[in-house]
């Protein structure tokens, strides 16, 4: 039975029908709501089907598992964020400008991929099952590349004097990422009175106000 569903999914995806793809997006959104409320590990397929207003069998026509839903959305977002920060790091902006760009970009990604990236932050990847160890490894590698890039931006700014900061660039970077990650506790793009871009710029003002070298 599982293989039959898999063949039907593959055929539907190859066909690329608009209605099928739209229904997949709706199921992904429903799954995201459940993941945010219960956590990935505690959620089962029946929970997702119930939230999406379909039965379990119908869900399998669109996705093979809850992990497939989660991984599909998160993988694309995490990879895009990593490529974006590496592009920013290698660009011609000053370090403060790069940091602002990164902050606004990450907040926007949190909104565009809500709530999947927040669930990703909250999950313990070490608890991922054996079938998903390769995916977990890939995500850890992307996270590492992201951290290396933001540390590099801060280190460069400290070296050229555009960032007036003392201490380990890695600690500063972790503090910045922690500030942004904590928004998972209160930011919902569908309910917020401010956009992700506005919030990102506010954070950038606060963060850079403390470490930007004042020019005289």
UniProtKB/TrEMBL annotation:
<dbReference type="InterPro" id="IPR050109">
    <property type="entry name" value="HTH-type_TetR-like_transc_reg"/>
</dbReference>
<dbReference type="Pfam" id="PF00440">
    <property type="entry name" value="TetR_N"/>
</dbReference>
<dbReference type="Pfam" id="PF17932">
    <property type="entry name" value="TetR_C_24"/>
</dbReference>
<keyword id="KW-0238">DNA-binding</keyword>
<protein>
    <submittedName>
        <fullName>TetR/AcrR family transcriptional regulator</fullName>
    </submittedName>
</protein>
<dbReference type="InterPro" id="IPR036271">
    <property type="entry name" value="Tet_transcr_reg_TetR-rel_C_sf"/>
</dbReference>
<dbReference type="InterPro" id="IPR009057">
    <property type="entry name" value="Homeodomain-like_sf"/>
</dbReference>
<feature type="DNA-binding region" description="H-T-H motif">
    <location>
        <begin position="44"/>
        <end position="63"/>
    </location>
</feature>
<dbReference type="InterPro" id="IPR041490">
    <property type="entry name" value="KstR2_TetR_C"/>
</dbReference>
<feature type="domain" description="HTH tetR-type">
    <location>
        <begin position="21"/>
        <end position="81"/>
    </location>
</feature>
<dbReference type="GO" id="GO:0003700">
    <property type="term" value="F:DNA-binding transcription factor activity"/>
</dbReference>
<dbReference type="GO" id="GO:0000976">
    <property type="term" value="F:transcription cis-regulatory region binding"/>
</dbReference>
<keyword id="KW-0804">Transcription</keyword>
<keyword id="KW-0805">Transcription regulation</keyword>
<dbReference type="InterPro" id="IPR001647">
    <property type="entry name" value="HTH_TetR"/>
</dbReference>
